[in-house]
Design goal:
82% helix; 8 helices
Length: 204
Amino acid sequence: MNSSQAQSMEHIRKGPIIAALLLGAFVAFLNQTLMNIALPKIMDDLGIQPTTGQWLTTGFMLVNGVLIPVSAFLIARFTTRQLFISAMTMFSLGTLICAISPNFGILMTGRVIQAAGAGILMPLMTVVFLNIFPIEKRGSAMGMMGIAMILAPAIGPTLSGYIVEHHSWRVLFYIILPVAIIATLIGVFFLKNVTSVTKPKFDF
């Protein structure tokens, strides 16, 4: 980053950018921990075998694993706003599909769409934080990222256990959806483009 870029970063309103990215990362992590506890209830409700039901978590992780390295290309190809809004829109759409899914096939489709959005969020958040914070404050930035990564797994199992015991497992997705939408809206109105778009060619 050159001196003019560094100077412009100093005047960016970091609060809304941080809020949007942390909320997005939080719901992505929370989504996975909620699913782990709810899986037996989902399998029973949809009448599927454990070997089939496990694909709801395995498939999510596989898509994540593919999208995380690909996100380096996407971050260089698209603006910060385009990528964040697209990722959160995909995640929100996938969450809605999961919430209303009548069978395993549609639920699995929703999970794949969720994973496509979630797989972009973590690398994007890291790149944005490294761009908007000066070197001497990057430790604090990484600490904020760690909060989202630790808090979601900490509260997810308890929240999921309570909900699936007293309500439908679909409520889990209805809880995540408004938070994801709020993060998306914050991104729409406040997120700035803080990465350079070089439009590289995809190199296998």
